[in-house]
Every structure is written in C-alpha cells, then in structure tokens.
Amino acid sequence: IPGQKVVLITGCSSGIGLRMAVMLAKDEQKRYHVIATMRDLKRKDKLVEAAGDTYGKTLSLAVLDVCSDESVKQCINGIKDLNNAGIGLVGPVESIPIEEMKKVFETNVFGVIRMIKEVMPDMKKRKGGHIIVVSSVMGLQGVVFNDVYAASKFAMEGFCESLAVQLLKFNVILSLIEPGPVHTEFEAKMIQEVKQRECPGADPDTVNYFKNVYLPSSIDIFEVLGQTPDDIAKVMIEASRPRFRNLTNPMYTPIVALKYADETGGLSVHAFYHMLFNLGPLMHVSMTAMKYLTYNTASLVRLSAYYEKHKTNIVVSIYLFCYN
Ligand SMILES: NC(=O)C1=CN([C@@H]2O[C@H](COP(=O)(O)OP(=O)(O)OC[C@H]3O[C@@H](n4cnc5c(N)ncnc54)[C@H](OP(=O)(O)O)[C@@H]3O)[C@@H](O)[C@H]2O)C=CC1
Ligand SMILES: CC1=C(/C=C/C(C)=C/C=C/C(C)=C/C=O)C(C)(C)CCC1
C-alpha cells in the first residue's frame, strides 16, 4: 500500500517485541505494515491471537534468527527496522562459562549489528529509514550480578552512538530505547535463573549475596518500578519526533543519572552498595516514595536539582526531600 511504512521487528514471540508488533499493526490510520519475526514459528500462537484480524493484513509473520547470517539475509526487505531480540544473564561471574557469556554477546551485540549491516546499505541508498534498537537502562548503568548483560548493552550503545552520526548524513535515523524493568518472560527467566543457578566456582558468601540479597531486591524493584510491554511500545509510537535516546521509565532515570552527578563514579558505586547491602526493606519504602514523587513532573525537576546541589546518595536525598 503506498505510503505505508514497512516495519520489521525481531523477537516477536513474546514480551516487548510482541506488543510493539501488535500496537503498530492495529494503528487506526493503518500507517504501518509489520513484519513480525521470530526464530521459531512454533512460538507464533500468542502473537497471532493478540494480532486478531490484523494478521494477514497489516501484520505478517517471518522467520528470523539474529544469530544467523543466512536467516537475516533471507528475511530482510524492510524500511523501518526494530531490533528487539535479546537475552538476559545474571549470576556471579566466576560461575558463568565464557561460552554462555558469548551467547549473550552473539544475540544482544552481534545480532543487532548483523541486522543493521543488512538493512543499512539500502537505507543509505534511499536516503531514508529508521533503525530502532531496544537497549536497556543497563546500557547506561551497570547493575550488580548483571555484569555480562550490562556489558552487552553497553557495547551496543557504543556501536549505535558512533554509527548514528554517519547515518544522519544519509538521512537515516537511529534510535535507542532504554527500558528499566519490564514484566515479560525476561523477568520470569531472570528469577528462575537466580533460583536454579548452582554457581560452581563461586564462594558461599557470593552465592548468598546473589540468592538472598540481590534476588529479593531485584524482585522488589520489578514490583515497584516495573512497566508493561505496552508502556514501552507507547513511548515509541507516541514520540512526536524520533529521538536518539528514549528512557521509558522516569522512576528509573535518577538511578541512571547518578553517574553524571559525580565524574569520579564513586557516588553511584557507593549508593548502589548502600541500597543493596544496608537498606534492605527500607529500599522498598524509598522506591515507593520515589514512585509517587516522580508522578509529578514539578517534583521530579526539584528532585534532580536537589541531587545536583547536594551530590548525595539517592535514597538519602529522597528522604531529605520528603522532609523538606
Ligand atoms: N524485560 C525487561 O526488563 C527488559 C528488557 N529489555 C530488552 O528488551 C528486549 C526484549 O526483551 P523482553 O520482551 O523483555 O523479553 P522476552 O524474553 O519476552 O523476549 C525476547 C525475545 O527475543 C527473542 N530472541 C532471543 N534470541 C533470539 C534470536 N537469536 N533471534 C531472534 N529472536 C530471538 C525471543 O525469542 P524466543 O521465543 O525464540 O526465545 C523473544 O521473542 C531485549 O533486547 C531485552 O534485553 C530491556 C530492558 C528491560
Ligand atoms: C538490586 C539493585 C538495583 C537493581 C536494579 C535492577 C534489578 C534493574 C533491572 C533492570 C532491568 C531488568 C533491565 C533490563 O534490561 C539498583 C536499583 C541498581 C540499586 C542497587 C540494588
């Protein structure tokens, strides 16, 4: 259909990819034709059901594995390319085999690069196109026990930040989406991974911090700050014009912003240490306080001015702010 934009999305069997595909396909003005891709079509039922009568009209299905050159080459013909496929990995570094780490980089880093390499030459030739990459807040700020996953998202951010400048010369836009915690299979897989991981090679203290300190905090953070895949899809669709960075969760933004408030990096390292090891249940209270505070934009602005001025621990500053 003339004027209709073709959007190719990777990783549509579940989560953010699935909801993005459905939301674009259901666009009332029918502006998009979505090619929803997944590596295994046996997993298509949830998507087909959610797509309803858009399936076969504004939404079609295709097979694509971001880890395979051949699969990517066979599938590509898109105008707008949304790189969403990704996998998580948590655990003490000592206990994770290098091979497992490489799988994360193969999917989250080389998977994205492979897709971009394939769609980019045609976009440059046409002098138009939009590449969207689902990164993470962990592409900007590491989180304890997520070392390898954060490293993979940092790698992608560096790649995209560099490439965006060149692409702009060809009128091709590159955008990153940086969600905080989102309730998808990613969350369930993470919780299961922490519970099941045997952590060979890690000492008992480390295993204890991973299972009995990190896990409850992490579950808590998902509970208090977690967004839905629809929230993420809306951020992209409702943006009036494309931006390079798109943090989707204003409640998580202060956590990412800490590193910019102190160039020595000490503030974020010590604030996270304090939140994880000293605050325990208090963190739940302060996160909840932050949730209510950030619902109000004016208080968010005041809050960030407060950080700026006092360059202090985020949780402590929230308390001080509450009493001010
Ligand atoms: N959930 C969260 O808290 C956050 C997630 N993200 C990012 O969002 C993106 C989507 O994750 P989310 O929806 O949450 O998680 P899900 O696990 O629900 O979805 C991930 C999708 O990626 C697909 N996938 C994995 N490997 C490949 C591959 N080699 N080729 C093609 N598809 C593949 C999965 O397919 P299959 O069904 O075949 O496994 C699945 O459809 C990821 O990049 C993730 O890093 C970012 C911030 C937070
Ligand atoms: C435990 C812990 C934290 C956990 C953050 C988490 C669990 C973030 C999850 C983000 C996700 C899932 C991104 C996906 O790409 C904080 C807030 C840094 C503070 C220090 C203690």
TrEMBL record:
User: Which GO biological process entries does UniProt record here?
Assistant: estrogen biosynthetic process; retinol metabolic process
Enumerate the active-site residues.
Y149
GO MF annotations for this entry? all-trans-retinol dehydrogenase (NAD+) activity; estradiol 17-beta-dehydrogenase [NAD(P)+] activity
Q: Which Gene3D superfamilies match?
A: NAD(P)-binding Rossmann-like Domain (3.40.50.720)
Record keywords: Lipid metabolism, Oxidoreductase
The residues listed in the UniProt record as binding NADP(+), with positions renumbered to this chain, are 11-39, 65, 153
Name residues in a coiled coil.
none
One GO cellular component this record assigns the protein to is:
cytosol
Indicate which residues the UniProt annotation says bind substrate: S136
Q: Which family does it belong to?
A: Belongs to the short-chain dehydrogenases/reductases (SDR) family.
Name assigned to this protein: Uncharacterized protein
**The organism of origin for this protein:** Echeneis naucrates
